[in-house]
Task: structure prediction
Amino acid sequence: MSNLSTAEHSAATSSPLLTVKQLRVDLPVAKGTLHAVRGIDFHVERGEMLCLVGESGCGKSMTSLALMGLLPRKAQVNADCLNFDGVDLLTVPERERSNLRGARMAMIFQEPMTALNPAYTLGNQLCEALRRHQRVSRQAAHDRALYLLKRVGISAAEERMRQYPHQLSGGLRQRVMIAMALMCEPDLIIADEPTTALDVTIQAQILHLLRDLQQEFGTAIIFITHDLGVVARIADRVAVMYAGEVIETASAQALFKAPSHPYTQGLLRCIPTPGKTLPGSRLQAIPGVVPSLVGKIEGCAFCNRCDQADERCRTTPPLQAVAGEHFSRCHFAHQLASPAPLNDQEVTS
Amino acid sequence: MTNTTSPANSMDPLALELCALSKTFKLGGGMLHKPQTLKAVNEVSLRVPRGQVMGLVGESGCGKSTLAKMLLGLTPPSSGDVLINGKAIVNANQKALARHIQPIFQDPYSSLNPRQRIAQIVGLPLRIHALGTPREQAAKVDQMLDLVGLPKRAAQQYPGQMSGGQRQRVAIARALIMRPDLVICDEPTSALDVSIQAQILNLLLDLKDEFGLTYLFISHDLAVVEHLADRLAVMYLGQIVEEGTREQIFTSPRHPYTQALLASALTPEPGLGVPDIGLGAGQPDPTQPPSGCAFHPRCPIAQPQCSEQTPKLSAITHASGQAFGKGSQARVACHLA
Amino acid sequence: MAQTLSPPAAAAQRPADTWSSRLVRSTLNNRNLTIGLLIITSLGIIALLAPWLAPHDPYLQDTANRMVPPIWHETGSWTHPLGTDRLGRDYLSRLIYGSRISLFIGLVVALISGLIGTTLGVLAGYFGGRVDAVVSYLLTTRLAMPVVLVALAMASLMGGSMLSVTLLLGLLLWDRFAVVARSATQQLRDAEYVQAAQALGCPLPYILLREVLPNIAGALIVVATLEVANAILLEATLSFLGMGVQPPSPSWGLMIAEGKTYMFFQPWVITIPGGALFMLVLAINLLGDGLRDLSAPGGRNE
Result:
């Protein structure tokens, strides 16, 4: 794999690795249709780390499953464009899709306990991940598995290959999942909350590892999480989702320094940050709840919780460009993008 | 409803005191091998002053959940004492204990009986303890629901019809309806979205001030603990490795594990990257604790004596000891602190 | 507090969307459940209204009209639509009255064995340790017994009768209840709402009856329907072997036994009660399947 830094690499190839335009995912439920994803646009450059961040129910997991083609059959996936490195994911036959899966697009799931098959050894599962897609000898697969296990920081790798998932702790299992995802040298890894179920010290190690591996292998990663702290530390670019829409995309620096959507600002304000928020003070919570995604939503989905809302918010705001690559789906985007940092809580009562 | 704590108890400055509390489990064992002992809680001593929030921080396997269960009377300690309001609870009747200490659990989806209505759930403590007539109980339930920010019609709903944040409010209402002195909050916001977490944390702070509650706040989220707690204790493999005020712990942590925990807490500040904690990939195994200091296999500054001698939790003076005021003792269990 | 107020807008229900109307809708959507319920309800009504529905007295012997074939034979007649047996008793009436016996025994046995099995299972699941060991031992012993042989042996000691059959089967068929109740309770034992009830100082009977039992009821109801079917078949077996309900009671099993000798030349003597048994047991199994679908995680709000 190339040793170019991620920036150089993405400059070298101009078209994005993954382009998503107006992705919609609808699920029939008892009460009607659940519009889990309501027309989102984003792209992923080669070798970059895009974080998809949002709270529960925003549609981020649905997006990842739609990209991988892992949604249940009754789910309807539509998009204007769903292009992975020249392959149109909407029209590609299922056979080719499953060839793509694992080989060029890999997924890491949240629960390491359940994502590994308890009936097979780790070595078996690792080698199978490779041999399903490439014609390699058992020995070659074994060697690659060993190499990757060592690379992800698992000591006594040879012994671990013969062990079963239940013999490993959560952190180690997640490392094995990462190794498994890397077996075929995929261009894109979709990681769906891979560290949410782990202890915080283990999480730090796994994140550090992912960043290292990304630099070394040049893999693009879509990292799905609800934890803004994680996003700030590892993301190159961020897409914030709310109620099935992407409401803001920006580079990590731009998003945290100048959030341009009331929801993003609300999120940042309500997180207690040691050193910034006054201990014992009231956090500025976002009032209200997320609207139901069953049935149509008129206008901006956030307006019933927004203190800036006015008449214009009855119509869905278009995506406004706040600066270079910084977009926000809000009528007030330009006014909100103020240079002053917003987490200055020392003065609040 | 009358406050049933006697005047003598309510003057006790310590709401909660733990003295060398331990809990040992026996696992497995059969005809071919001896049962393993798991020392989930190992000689924990702690003092929680009245009206304060004591944060208890630690990762999985550190024993904080077992500790909480012992305080609530759900499992008996293997040794040591628990004193609530100055009185030992070891032989206390569960009902009497329940008047003074109540839990708020982590998972809003399993902490409420899915087959009962909210009014039944919140009113259960009053019914079990036969406090007031049914009409008075219903009035109290309505009052509690209002206090936690739920509308009146929530009383007739089932938990399945509510969101996670609302269920957690119900759990809080149930915990506080008998006005206990001490509330054990076992990761109450870990399963909630960040925007809901903020609402619940605000609610917990408001209620603490209104009712003069004392909280033992168990969490792995250091940012939340820093926001809420007055004092902090850090647990590792069943022992307290460091204890102090919030400022002491967050500005000058002494124990390597505390330092690692603080470094792992990722604040939403871009450009700082993920620090390399340097703890090694090994996970602690509670059934086979390391010799000497339990942390030494993962400790970046471990010395030979760390594997030979178990460090005792002892008081230290901080460099800027004066700044933290009197009575704010800090303790660390490390040979090198 | 205004800032923390969050009206449950997202969870608002339409007025008609109550628990009962959702139940009705789920039932109608499930074909198994609907068919099963229809058949069983019809049989239940027939059983209840037997005295008014049966054209003749099931015990009335009419030796002049013995072995009259049913209506679909050339020599059949509408006085005896399903023919008569070897003693001239009207088959249709005996069939109708026989449904009472089957349903009664099925339900009562399920009740008795359900009580025994659920109690043992819940206690084993909740306490674990020694209690669990004792119950598991009882369970293993019971599972090692061949039910039919034991029932036969006991019946021959006690003498066959409806009462003895009911008691015997009730005391023998509790195993599935115990197994299901035990595993369901084990899953609930560490649920936080159970811990919360314990932390409140709730007495043990309250916790078992009001916190644990309602939440395992779903699984137990499914087991109950299957045990009803089991009991009905076992009663038919015992009666067939002469150790169950005694003649002249119109138990379907007994009717089959009495028709044994005529099996080849007048097959309807066996096929009619056999067919009725088949329909009933099939209906109960369909009901059980349907209930299991309903109570599966996808079928309910939670």
